[in-house]
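Today's session is about reading a structure prediction critically. Students often jump straight to the picture, but the first step is always the sequence itself: look for stretches that repeat, for charged clusters, for runs of hydrophobic residues. Only then move on to the predicted structure, which in these notes is written as discrete structure tokens rather than atom positions. Here is the chain we will use throughout the hour.
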Amino acid sequence: MLIVESGEIVLPGTPDFGFDIDMPPGTAYACLSETALLAMDGKFEDYTLGRNIEMGRVKEMYRLWQKHGLKLAGLRSFGVYVTDEIISEKRRLAEERRRKLGLASDPVNTGD
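Below is the predicted structure for this chain, in token form.
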């Protein structure tokens, strides 16, 4: 099983949060990044709060994302960036476990 800690975003510049959020430099949780992005654009309201998110708000966030130069951070699992090698090993272990249990191969990872 591969556990991904959270959605993480690289903010532009060299942001100083005023305290250690236990993230790589310039990186913030997606929820904090949304707040920062809205503030960068002078918007002081929530945009994607809750489960009923309007598509127009999603498109506006994407436009602001591009305007202000935010980027997706790499995926991390227990503080380590997830590499292709880690994913391959997790897939190998899952397939080995399925074989031991007599289950069918993973239909998502057929190699096609």
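Discussion point for the tutorial: The radius of gyration is 19 Å.
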